[in-house]
Design a protein that fits this description.
Layout lengths: L1 H4 L25 H12 L8 E2 L18 E9 L8 E11 L4 E7 L4 E2 L7 E2 L3 H11 L4 H20 L5 E6 H10 L3 E5 L3 E5 L4 E5 L2 E5 L1 H9 L12 H21 L3 H12 L2 E3 L3 H10 L8 E5 L2 E4 L2 E4 L1 H16 L1
Parallel strand pairs: 1-12, 2-7, 4-13
Antiparallel strand pairs: 2-3, 3-4, 5-6, 7-12, 8-11, 9-10, 14-15
């Protein structure tokens, strides 16, 4: 990693589709664990729609399984929309799970966070993946292999940043979020402000009124990704979006926990499976789902990192960052 760490990363042009919303679909590792667990008990076929990029030859020893050992994931949201032609990874969370307490800590990282880490060029949190991927391709790897290697590079870097080992990575795209919310029958949230924003270039058309209401997939996506109105009013910060993410993620986890209808469960599995990629070994996917069956919002501690915006970075609050590091470490040590 020393060679890659010395390269500069050019910040990408901002896109007013906050890619951070896709991380909500990484609920597969939080709420969906309990939700899919039900079907795992019913049928092994429940896992056929979940894709893993792990080497099929890798078998995790029983004593190292997620059934008995705490585990940490790097959760990434990808913007793969054809309208933008991009492959942005501006949404990031680190999640730690403990099987003894059947609980989790989820830390969200603002996309513009200034990351200062020994051996790495100082840059925004969302700038590293694209550079790692380019470097891996420069070493002769094809697109798929370069992407897998870049995820590992990113996991290693943020593991050092948070002071914990990060075992696996999961990525999901925009469509997955909307599909899962629809499959769940929508989510009820408090829309904290009037949200109106149109961008004809990428088809964005956000039109939400302030107040508590039930949102289906596309509207829920708009709720979490909203940044500002066209007239520059009703501004929404990364920190506002972090709070919305936690609100929606908790709702989704609780809805999945309460489901008992096999057709509805199968629908969510399909929605997730079509849009999710992981690098956890296949047998560990099943173990993860069984172990965290029944997990709900009350079992998850959400920690959105906060800080001060000073262009072009968010300077993270040192005390809050340390509290997040301590919470992750403690969850892995319980």
């Amino acid at each position: 990693m020393s060679r890659k760490a010395t390269h500069a990363v050019r910040p990408k042009k901002k896109n007013y589709w906050p890619r951070r919303i896709m991380v909500l679909l990484l609920l597969v590792l939080v709420g969906v664990a309990g939700y899919l667990g039900y079907l795992v008990y019913v049928s092994k076929d429940a896992l056929k729609d979940i894709t893993t990029d792990a080497d099929p030859a890798v078998v995790v020893a029983p004593e190292d399984s997620v059934k008995v050992k705490p585990v940490a994931f790097m959760l990434l949201g990808m913007d793969t929309r054809k309208q933008t032609g991009s492959l942005n990874t501006d949404v990031m969370m680190v999640a730690a799970f403990n099987p003894a307490t059947k609980s989790a800590v989820v830390v969200s990282i603002p996309r513009d966070s200034r990351i200062a880490l020994s051996g790495y060029k100082i840059n925004k949190a969302n700038a590293y993946f694209a550079r790692f991927r380019a470097l891996e391709k420069g070493d002769g790897l094809d697109n798929a292999e370069a992407e897998k290697a870049a995820k590992k590079d990113l996991r290693t870097m943020f593991g050092k940043f948070f002071g914990i080992p990060i075992d696996y990575t999961a990525t999901i795209n925009f469509q997955g979020f909307a599909d899962v919310v629809d499959a769940l029958g929508g989510v009820t949230v408090d829309v904290d402000m009037d949200m109106h924003y149109v961008d004809n270039a990428d088809g964005t058309n956000i039109d939400l009124a302030k107040g508590r209401q039930k949102l289906m997939g596309d509207d829920a996506l708009d709720f979490v990704r909203y940044r500002k109105s066209n007239d520059g009013k009703n501004m929404s910060s990364d920190f506002d979006r972090n709070r919305r993410e936690s609100q929606v993620l908790g709702q989704i986890a609780d809805k999945m926990k309460s489901f008992s209808s096999v057709p509805k469960i199968a629908g969510v599995i399909k929605a997730v499976g079509n849009n999710l990629r992981m690098d956890i070994p296949a047998n560990e996917v099943e173990n993860m789902l069984k172990t965290y069956y029944g997990i709900g919002a009350n079992d998850i501690t959400f920690i959105p990192l906060e800080g001060t915006w000073k262009s072009p970075y968010v300077y993270l609050d040192d005390a809050k960052l340390q509290a997040a590091k301590d919470a992750l470490s403690a969850k892995l040590a319980e």
